[in-house]
Amino acid sequence: MCRLFGALFTHRLEADWLEGFRCLADCGMLPPGSEANGHRDSWGLAAWTDKSRFLCRAAEDAFEDEYFLHLRDAFAEGNLPARGMMAHLRLASKQNKVSGPIRHAHPFYSFRHGREWFFAHNGTVRDADFAYNADTGLIDSQILMDRILGFLTPEDLQSRFAEAVCQAIRRVEESLVDYTSLCCLLSDGESLAAYRSYSDKNAASYYTLHSIFEPGSKLVVCSERLAIGRSNWEPMSNRECLVAGPELEKPARFKL
After folding, report:
1. Predicted structure pTM score
2. Reported CATH class of domain 2-255
């Protein structure tokens, strides 16, 4: 149960984008029946250029953490260069309140198929083989990332990246029995994929993704509409996958 933020951009991303997202830790929408006081269990931020990767994960509340503010300003001022970004605010589900929060702070990182991947997820997978295992230390979201990447091949990624990623997500979802949501972001440090899927209709208003696209300039995806985007946010439908490349041409959209 989390808030997601992903972006591709050709120029610096204004501080208001990350500032608006940071505020969701304090005042973002909560799942039905939750008594939590926000998405404060941890935060993480990944960023990339064509030559470098950056990943920070913290056990702090992003709304109160001054280092989040430092990164917000560093990216906006160009002191930390980036052409893509993924951020996550965590509200841990009951089954995943285990071990230290940094270990399970998103985004997660993996090197597979000759590429560096970042992944962030909003939801809970309750299938038995996704349960937390003290021996591996993995929670459901980390297992979900591994399963998705496991259905990809270097050949497919090279020739048809968008279709391959969406098909991998679909194959994993078809294998699941009990989950609240598979809303997620996945990036190989160049392209960005966003997927919205929920199984509980009563929580449809929480498991959301919205996007803003400006051709040749930026793509932003977020769990909630941020004030900086005003009325330009476009909601994603259930089981819709969106994929954009670094050239920021029109994103490919697939209904799974």
Report:
1. 0.95
2. alpha beta
